[in-house]
Amino acid sequence: MFTGIDEVDWTSLRHAHGSAADVPGLLRRLASADAAEREAALDGLYGSVHHRGNVYDSTLACVPFLCALVAHPEVRDRSAIVELLVSIGSQSAGSRARAAVHARAEVFVPLADDPCPGVRRAAADALVRFLDEPARVLEVLGRRVRSESDEQVLRTLAEALGLFVLRHQAQAAGALDLLAAQSEPPYAPGTRLAALGQLALRAPQRLPADPVPTAVRLLRERTERRSSGTDRAETDTLVGRIRRLRPSDEEGSSLLRTLHQALDDRVADRIDLLVGQLSSPGAMDRCNAVRMSAGLFRAWRADFTAPVRLIGAQLRATEDQLRDAAVSVLAELFGLAAPAADELHTLVTVRPDLWVRTWERGRPSLGGPLKALARSGDPRAVAALAQLLAGPVVPAGLGFEVVHLGRAAAPLAPALRHRLGRVPLDAPDAAETAAPLLAAVTALADAAAVPEVLRLLRGAPDGLGAREALVGQAVRALDALGSAARAAVPVLRGLLGTRHAAGAAGALWAAEGDADAVLPVLMRELVVGRGRGVRSAAEQLGRLGPLARDALPALRALAASGRVWERTGAAWALWRIGGDPEPVLPVFRAAWSENPYTRRTIAECLAAMGPAGAPLHDLLTAELATARRHTARPGGHGSHDIAQDEDLLAHCRTALTST
Length: 659
Known about the structure:
Elements: E1 14-15, E2 18-19, H1 23-29, H2 35-48, H3 57-70, H4 78-89, H5 96-102, H6 108-111, H7 117-130, H8 134-147, H9 151-167, H10 172-182, H11 189-202, H12 211-228, H13 238-245, H14 250-263, H15 267-278, H16 283-299, H17 305-313, H18 320-333, H19 341-350, E3 356-357, E4 365-366, H20 368-375, H21 381-389, H22 398-402, H23 413-421, H24 430-443, H25 450-459, H26 466-481, H27 489-494, H28 501-512, H29 515-528, H30 532-544, H31 552-561, H32 564-578, H33 585-594, H34 599-609, H35 617-625, H36 641-656
Antiparallel strand pairs: 1-2, 3-4
Helix pairs in contact: 1-2, 3-4, 3-5, 4-5, 4-7, 7-9, 8-9, 9-10, 9-11, 10-11, 11-12, 11-14, 12-15, 14-16, 15-16, 15-17, 16-18, 18-20, 19-20, 20-21, 23-24, 23-25, 24-26, 25-26, 26-28, 28-29, 28-30, 29-30, 30-32, 31-32, 32-33, 34-36, 35-36
């Protein structure tokens, strides 16, 4: 196995942590009789020669010895070594690493018939990736499909066949025939699900006429078999033992995720599939469904009433894992969580211990069930929020969630003011503590909160941007309070020469309506300001309406050459000041395509423009007809993306009916 290992100058080779002098020892320990030593050696190789998926010169030098190890039946845990080889060789097509594994791909052929199921599983994937003889690979896979008895290996073979179809289109027919055969009896439900998923991904035309009901039925049959213990492939490896101990069903999740991926924009079918998953008698099936529902909700627009109601039903589950997953998803849905509001309210009522989430470090935060109920706009959240506001510590972020309750949260105003008045101004987290409370009093337009807001403005501490953040938040709150904030006029005038000039000018205009006092400030900020200050100045000028006519030339220039958000703000100001849609609509149309995040603002502007915005109604109509959310992006999400997209759709509908 290790012939020639001492002839390699390992000290001159490198890995992630420097010299590769330790690599021969790691390779030798892979053949140890001691399981712990083998596992430590494998971890060592992943952490050095294949650290974070990277490939080094020492990685290439390891490949011959790793291949020699997997060729010896007496070596234990060879499946893990094959998986390491697959990972090394799959880093990039045409790379030296791929070439090194490809050159020794013959070693994987006998492994396809190895007595160890784990080795057979790993070998199937390796054969498709590295053996450049498609006909031979298909022959080996077909033989294994027809003779294999291990359910996990059969499911892996389905995945390997799907990969084969992707890589070898000219020889795909035979692989698709094998997949079609695996999707039918007498194969077990899990194998059939795996085959259905691969057919859906690679050849949808080969699917049965009713793929979703078929998948749901197979899922339930699989769950019944697992419950009775007839679908468990036991292995004697450490990995096998760990899998049996995990309180989860990663394999089931993978099977259904593949099917969801394949269905892609067939949203109605995916909803039906989710409903079937969420109605399963198996708690882990339902938990998997809840978790994968989040991606569907974030990316697509549809009537999600049925799955949301079923996710709400999971709040009654005795399994914490399932309940917590449901809460997490519902908290991202905001108004779309309304069908689950009754279940959320019940959970909030019977489990007050879940109102607050305590962290090992930092302030406690609002618990998921209460947060989700408030975000759904349900006024039944008010009572619990009032109790928390009356308690010794206000959970972080509570005020931000009050905003979603609208006027129903009015009874909370006195407690919010009280808490705002107790924010310690000399604390390093004063701005962080005050921000949610300021957001709440702003949303409620609580005129009685002016003294508390003024206290923050006058006493905001200096240092590390804390004062700047707090002042900006307080100014926005005073702006929302309008003429009720007259007592703040002297303080606001004092801010007209600072970085908060545009915001302070807007608040001053709202408080006393003196255009002469604010117009010169806003004109200055529009021309010489920076960043968000320029956009803010444009927006504030728009509020002055015709009184800001002197700013029209500068606004036209900004609308023609500024950044996308500056152009959008300037265009809106041009309409509000001059009432002429001609210079405005082209800017909106360009920004709509350039940055989807401007669409909500533009749709709101078009709704306010009424008939004058009609030339852009084609954009609104197209948006409403688009199934994918404007914020959808692979691999990421924001906690407010769904709410913002639903808000966009509401503004589009309003604009189209405002003519």
